[in-house]
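hey can u run this one w/ magnesium ion bound, need the structure tokens asap thx
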Amino acid sequence: MSVAEKIETEGRDFIRDIVADDLASGRHRHVVTRFPPEPNGYLHIGHAKSICLNFGVAREFGGRCHLRFDDTNPTREEQEYIDAIEEDVRWLGFDWGEHLHHASDYFERLYGWAEELVRAGKAYVDDQTQEEMRLARGTLTEAGQNSPYRDRTVAENLDLLRRMRAGEFPNGARVLRARIDMGSGNINLRDPVLYRILHATHPRTGDAWKIYPSYDYAHGQSDAIEGITHSICTLEFEDHRPLYDWFIENLPVPSRPRQYEFARLNLSYTVLSKRVLNALVKGGHVSGWDDPRMPTLAGLRRRGVPAEALRDFARRIGVAKANSLVDLGLLEFSIREVLNRSAHRRMAVLRPLKVVITNYESAGDELDAVNHPDDPGAGTRRVKFGREIFIERDDFMENPPKKFFRLSPGTEVRLRYAYFITCREVVKDAAGNITELRCSYDPATRGGNAPDGRKVKATIHWVSAADSVPAEVRLYNPLFVKPEPDVANFANDLNPNSLEIITDARIEPALAADNSPAPVQFERLGYFARDRGSAPGKPVFNRTVGLRDSYAKAT
Ligand code: ATP
Ligand code: MG
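ok here u go:
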């Protein structure tokens, strides 16, 4: 596929237009992008949008994309997160090649540039407390106040900065600030903090540093060091762009990156804030970062969502300049699109109701079931039929309303791949619960059609009682009950029914024997993937997604 064709299929957006223009005009010969996660949590589907954009643009335009850990805050960052992020980006289908970088690789250079700013009178050490600095920063309508330490001499600033670095002062005692303009209309330019004192062990640099650079100071300079041409970030950083440019203009950096902002992904019934996701994990609201209800890539993967579905989703939502809320149904749509094509079909019964076929005499009978209706190459398998089978409790009603066409007393239905059966008798326990149906079958309908041409109005799925295997099936619903959960009080909006565990489902033997994590379609029920917590003889399946947009109906 040519670059032009590729871009056509991936879709065009304002970022891709800018990149195409920059290449056409000769401003850049190669496009270099980066994905810069802070390793303070697992990646979520919002990050997937950013990854697909950054790595996608690089791939389509023949450039490269770096994975850079923005590891400037050792108090929140952990090796577990670093490992998980690398695994997730790879799983999503992208490769950074040799370009795995860390902001911490540049600590020495960043520090050297900070001294240069001090020497040029463009940075100073401030002794104000955090509270004093906050009060002096002003508001959107009011200018800030100059710090009383703003006019320290270069010599004094250099001395203090070096002593900060040497670890002479406790956390919070001083900061290094850029000396820009306390009266600027843009609060980000009111003498932003470049370095803070932090006596903390860093996963990579250990105890070498007692001061750490701020995000704003580290980010653009790291971009410049790596030769990033297009530094693509979310809209919250739009107001930081003048500061990004100020550093680039005032420092002898080796290249001139530019920042572009796009709208972050917001997804209904979902929270995409690492702070909240972390609180969900720490608070025990979910079983971990990879709980299948989590919007993390690890959670989605465990749930059975294919990486291809996330790439498809990213393509469909596109890249815009204005924030919006994407319907969760759109994600489900992408998942169904991919799984409908790829998932093999199997039969499972979630809430079994026993059916005895009273006139069935044969000792054993095997029927052919197709693995994929649109893909003959996927082949067929044999499923065992018998005198006793299980059907879905929902597929029977003793007193059905008019439009109910499935099994009821006296009606005839088709058992998928097998026979027509007619319900003759309903057996109940002392409490009046239905415990069993007694049905008759028509041997002439083997394979699912009647030689006399008579029709039935419904086909239901089933498993054989003798050969099916018990399984646990976990059904998931959105974690939150509101389309836009209140992030500040997220616990109030949690869905108490986000997880439903069925412990006594029955699955056909072919499913029990297969250890593959690849999702399958349980016919008529949805797509399900084997959980990594399955034990031999005790399979556990996660519902990836239902067959229809059930979630839209529920709202
Ligand atoms: P936090 O929630 O802690 O503020 P973050 O989600 O911004 O963090 P980062 O690790 O800083 O996490 O994100 C890495 C990259 O992913 C950034 O470039 C950020 O803009 C992008 N990103 C984060 N969330 C989204 C989102 N919802 N949609 C699109 N891109 C996102
Ligand atoms: Mg961030």
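Residues 45-60 form the longest helix (16 residues). anyway lmk if its weird
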